[in-house]
Specification:
315 residues, mainly alpha, MetI-like fold, 2 domains, two-stranded antiparallel sheet, 2 strands, 71% helix, 2% strand
């Protein structure tokens, strides 16, 4: 019986492939891309356990086991980059995660379709600004000498020079997080808006008959509908808690705010690839592998907790 089912399913698959071969042919493009650029490079992770030398190659280099990881854990930089990464990641998660949900709930309550579409278009536009341009805009506005911030500060205080915000370690995290909120909350709300579109109108009608206000309907009808989506997105976000956007941090980084801006990704770059680094590819790979293992562990933990607390999980 099992063999018959197996042959039947294989025959069905072959039939589907013959019928929709054009779609399967298109599917090969992303599959090949993922294999070449995502899976094949994983073989290079072995250099994290070796003292990699370019002339000797990956397989010819000396095997050193966990020496590179031990070197990182014992480094004076370990505590600083780990704390900076965790603080910046959690700050970003706590601040940026609720905004798309709140915006989706609010925009879903708007009855004027034209106003809704115009608003969604406006808040989505910053998402398409590149990281380089975004940081350039921030520098132009908050420059202490020539920016809008500097001009307003001097006119209000009479001072010759405004404090350099980008040179302050204390203000670095706020600039990084809140600029990201402004840039991406509209785009991130799309998935929640799509989930809200599946709410059965009869639920709202029943709530209205019972005398529920608009706010009560949002809390008791709309919000429960998107809770599974919120949990799923939170689990996925936990998988990147330790992964701070390298480009933006690196562009905003300078010698004065380094105590708060040096995170795992920029540290790995500085020791492995930058001109001022030592070109230690094995050490940099070990740092990156450690970072990814932590992310994977957080996803597993969050998924397990979600499965026990609710009925929503990734697997």
């Amino acid at each position: 019986m099992n063999k018959k089912k197996t042959f039947g399913s294989l025959a069905a698959i072959r039939r589907d492939v013959r019928r929709d071969w054009q779609l399967y042919l298109l599917l090969l493009v992303p599959i090949i891309y993922i294999i070449i650029y995502k899976y094949l490079p994983m073989g290079g992770l072995v250099i994290a356990f070796k003292n990699y030398k370019v002339r000797q190659g990956i397989w010819g280099s000396k095997w050193v086991g966990f020496d590179q990881f031990t070197k990182f854990f014992e480094s004076y930089q370990f505590k600083r980059v780990l704390v900076n990464t965790i603080v910046l990641s959690l700050y970003t998660l706590i601040v940026s995660f609720p905004f798309p949900v709140l915006f989706a709930l609010m925009i879903n309550s708007v009855r004027n379709e034209r106003f809704k579409k115009v608003t969604q278009t406006i808040v989505n536009m910053p998402h398409f600004i590149s990281v380089v341009v975004m940081v350039g805009i921030m520098f132009s506005i908050f420059n202490s000498a020539t920016g809008l911030y500097g001009s307003v500060y001097r006119s209000l205080t009479g001072s010759n020079m405004a404090p350099d915000l980008f040179g302050s370690a204390a203000s670095f995290r706020h600039f990084y997080v809140w600029s990201a909120v402004w840039q991406h909350f509209g785009w991130d709300s799309i998935i929640y808006t799509a989930a809200l579109s599946s709410v059965d109108p009869s639920y709202h009608e029943a709530a209205q008959i019972d005398g529920a206000t608009r706010f009560q309907r949002v809390i008791h009808v709309d919000l429960p509908t998107i809770v599974p989506t919120i949990i799923t997105m939170l689990i996925l976000r936990m998988g990147s808690v330790m992964t701070i956007g390298f480009e933006k941090v690196y562009l905003m980084q300078n010698s004065m705010n380094l105590s708060a801006s040096e995170v795992i990704s920029t540290y790995a770059y500085s020791v492995g690839l930058s001109a001022k680094g030592v070109g230690n590819f094995s050490y940099a790979t070990a740092i990156g592998l450690f970072n990814n293992v932590i992310n994977f562990t957080l996803v597993m933990i969050m998924n397990t907790i979600s499965k026990k607390v609710s009925e929503t999980s990734l697997w």
